[in-house]
Amino acid sequence: MQTVVLGTSGTTPQDVIDVARHGARVELSTEAVAALAAAREIVDALAAKPEPVYGVSTGFGALATRHISHELRAQLQRNIVRSHAAGMGPRVEREVVRALMFLRLKTVASGHTGVRPEVAQTMADVLNAGITPVVHEYGSLGCSGDLAPLSHCALALMGEGDAEGPDGVVKPAGELLAAAGIAPVELKEKEGLALLNGTDGMLGMLIMALADLDTLYKSADITAALSLEALLGTEKVLEPELHAIRPHPGQAASAANMLAVLKGSGLTGHAQAGEAPRVQDAYSVRCAPQVAGAGRDTMAHALLVAERELAAAVDNPVVLPDGRVASNGNFHGAPVAYVLDFLAIAAADLGSIAERRTDRLLDKNRSHGLPPFLADDAGVDSGLMIAQYTQAALVSETKRLAVPASADSIPSSAMQEDHVSMGWSAARKLRTAIGNLNRILAVELYAATRGIELREGLTPAPASRAAIEALRAAGVQGPGPDRFLAPDLAAADAFVREGKLVAAVEQVTGPLA
């Protein structure tokens, strides 16, 4: 099994994916353990002094004015975890919780939090044992970190609350720790606060969203090319010289991908009998690289933000190299929230243009010779009429999900925390939008491949043939009389989501950008 070693300088997006989705083990480097011990010495020295220090010897948030005596500080740290573990609603996905835990450990390992090495090791042990705390959908405002979600994780470290074991069964966390031979932690000064004061949930979801969108944007270039081919469109708009004079990198990449898919096609530029050659295709076909390219450039910006956040130590207060323990506002989720919302906008627009191409394929007045709704015997058969309804419903919902969460703020903690990011909400709706986008592209794929197969006597591009053959091998049927469509659409959805569309095409084209 792969192992990810955490040092003091952060981690990488691939490390997050490996731990969250693929169960990679986590180890602390010697450097990280030394940094943890050094920072803890500073916290212990401050804890011994009579002067109050936020997070060490005071209450929290609006209660920070109270100085807490030595005998109550262990209780203070337990209480912040218990009281902040106040989430509600459905359980959050296992991969999200693992990313959340790993990223909090990443910040702890930086040596800027004052957490003891043994607590950090317990965090790694819980991840490695496959124990996943139960975290709920609602409870984070994306400021002072993802408080409730992280608190549920910290609660499990204390042997309290519920967690899912490696077998997928939810049990009391204490039982799962005992079965794995892990002793619950007893939190000391500052540790409770340090375990729940970060942007880790929204960051983890951003990183996984970027991985999913990388596949989906390649898939969208393929489905756009297939639709262009089925509509007998012209590939001339994809020539690199046209995109070089508007030098957006994403646009050039999408155009190059589409051109690679269409290489050798006998359908592109073909005119139907009695139809004049087309000089221009509709915007949804002609402008596909511009729309997908803008989304790709949005992803590049989001990745830059994610990489900066991965190199950050997000906590309040933080232990600085000069020995100071300083309050700060680095827990505010605005940088992450903005790009999460930006990605939701891009996903909505990509889904919207894909649906327009699908609708064009089904309309006999605009499909350049294809049968109505790609039906076998139109009138007796309805073909893909209602598949487009489903696609349209998904597009409409995805547009609603594009409304930014980060534009909202609700004051909390008796107006001490009077501006929040709503980054967790932005991340949650982006996950839904990505699932919708996958389904939208699956419907376009289903329609476009059927359209190509209905062009009798014309030979599609080799990459298109490879996509069609792989799709049919995956159980998605081709043209014919009406049948129960839901299983075909579900299989097409899985085909796209699992990267099989991209893999089939890349066997012909080589790696797509």
From TrEMBL:
GO terms for molecular function: histidine ammonia-lyase activity; phenylalanine ammonia-lyase activity. One of its GO terms (biological process) is cinnamic acid biosynthetic process. It comes from the Bacteria. Gene3D superfamilies: Fumarase/aspartase (Central domain), Fumarase/aspartase (N-terminal domain). It catalyses: L-histidine = trans-urocanate + NH4(+). Its main location: cytoplasm. Pfam families: Lyase_aromatic (PF00221). Contains an active site 4-methylidene-imidazol-5-one (MIO), which is formed autocatalytically by cyclization and dehydration of residues Cys-Ser-Gly. The keyword Lyase applies. Keywords: Cytoplasm, Histidine metabolism, Lyase. There is a cross-link at C143-G145 (5-imidazolinone (Ala-Gly)). Its EC number is 4.3.1.3. One of its GO terms (cellular component) is cytoplasm. The modification 2,3-didehydroalanine (Ser) is found at S144. Belongs to the PAL/histidase family. This is Histidine ammonia-lyase. It comes from Streptomyces vietnamensis.
